[in-house]
């Protein structure tokens, strides 16, 4: 399985008792360490108004990380296009590419969610799921509905703060088309006026589309012949339809002649299963804080996590994420990642790991890399 590359997805998490500044320093260190361990790319997510997440601007953190590393690819997982323009995105990544050419991944994601009351219809998959598992045993939990999050006052405030008053977000398909045209240098407005992004035009960036289902994002990635990242760690219930929807929509392009998929997984590795489970204790309360619309809390210690009083509603709220986190010894987790890769046909796997202590987090990535390289 060492032929399947491993990458990193970093939210720049803030641990309880720590600060955003320390989280950023830990991120730079982790990027340097995972470069040494043999990970192929290092991505930053974009999240806002979360007390426990410092990764608010992928481009800014990328610029810092690029200067501290030399070979690992770095990118966004993903820039959220709902509150920004095609031009600002291309110019930001063009600036970084100007000094670090050939190392950037521009991962693009939708943001803003669906209007309350509107849900995505499940898409059929060719992989059968019986009793919540694929034929090779990968767990596919029931679908999670984020409707309560999209309709929450906190989400509405976030949208208000991210958008200019009265601004209308551009259609996602059109925005991706504009980004690609600006990168190529052949952008034309509806009335034929040229626009050239400097820096940005001709930048050696690898464009990815990130998606959690087989809907618009998968279609956009496939139609444009771009690489696609499916999120098992965010939406494990829909990972199969996302990957299959993308492959069904794929059309060869100058970028790719065949589909290329990465799949993400939440992982905690330690020398033995018991230690790994201890390090992962804070994950449940952390996910709960996100899904109750509080915003991600600073990642708790195991002792703080055990102090949380769980209700049945709480447990149901986080069950799909907790049940699909891969936690254990290097061999145990690598087996589960092989299972994920086989079920989805992933060309790469993206690993996201959060522990309270930075040393444990680095060690988790190291143990996994060593085990993966032995296979």
TrEMBL record:
Q: Which Pfam families match?
A: Bac_luciferase
* Domain Luciferase-like span(s) in chain numbering: 6-114, 168-344
Where, by residue number, does the polypeptide cross the bilayer?
A: none
The record ties this protein, via InterPro entries, to: Bact_Lucif_Oxidored, Luciferase-like_dom, Luciferase-like_sf
What's an example of a GO molecular-function annotation for this chain? Answer: oxidoreductase activity, acting on paired donors, with incorporation or reduction of molecular oxygen
Coiled coil, from the record: none
Instruction: Please provide, in alphabetical order, the Gene Ontology terms of the cellular component aspect for this entry.
Output: cytosol
Q: Organism's domain of life?
A: Bacteria
SUPFAM superfamilies in the cross-refs? Bacterial luciferase-like
Q: Where is this region: Disordered?
A: 106-136
This chain's protein is named: LLM class flavin-dependent oxidoreductase
The scientific name of the source species is Streptomyces ferrugineus
């Amino acid at each position: 399985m060492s032929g399947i590359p491993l990458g990193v997805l970093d939210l720049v998490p803030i641990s309880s008792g720590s600060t955003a500044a320390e989280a950023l320093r830990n991120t730079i260190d982790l990027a340097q360490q995972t470069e040494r361990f043999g990970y192929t790319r290092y991505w930053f997510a974009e999240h806002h108004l979360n007390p426990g997440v410092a990764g608010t601007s992928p481009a800014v953190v990328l610029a810092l990380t690029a200067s501290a590393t030399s070979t690992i690819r770095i990118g966004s997982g993903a820039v959220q296009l709902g509150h920004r323009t095609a031009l600002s995105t291309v110019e930001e990544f063009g600036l970084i590419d100007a000094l670090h050419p050939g190392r950037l991944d521009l991962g693009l994601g939708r943001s803003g969610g669906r209007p309350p009351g509107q849900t995505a219809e499940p898409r059929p998959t060719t992989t059968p799921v019986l009793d919540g598992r694929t034929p090779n045993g990968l767990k596919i939990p029931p679908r999670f509905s984020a409707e309560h999050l999209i309709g929450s006052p906190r989400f509405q405030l976030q949208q208000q703060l991210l958008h200019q008053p009265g601004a209308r977000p551009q259609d996602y398909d059109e925005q991706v088309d504009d980004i690609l045209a600006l990168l190529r240098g052949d952008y034309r407005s509806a009335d034929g006026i040229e626009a050239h992004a400097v820096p940005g035009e001709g930048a050696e960036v690898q464009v990815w589309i990130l998606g959690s289902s087989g809907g618009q994002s998968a279609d956009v990635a496939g139609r444009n012949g771009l690489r696609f990242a499916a999120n098992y760690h965010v939406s494990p219930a829909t990972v199969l339809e996302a990957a299959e929807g993308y492959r069904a929509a794929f059309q060869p392009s100058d970028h790719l002649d065949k589909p290329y998929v990465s799949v993400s997984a939440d992982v905690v590795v330690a020398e033995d299963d018991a230690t790994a489970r201890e390090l992962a204790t804070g994950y449940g309360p952390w996910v709960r804080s996100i899904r109750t619309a509080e915003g991600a809390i600073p990642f708790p210690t195991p002792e703080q996590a055990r102090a949380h009083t769980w209700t049945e509603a709480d447990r149901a709220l986080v069950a799909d994420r907790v049940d699909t986190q891969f936690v254990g010894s290097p061999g145990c987790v690598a087996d589960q990642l092989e299972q994920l890769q086989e079920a989805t046909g992933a060309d790469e796997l993206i690993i996201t790991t959060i522990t309270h202590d930075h040393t444990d987090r680095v060690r988790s990535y190291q143990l996994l890399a060593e085990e993966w390289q032995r296979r």
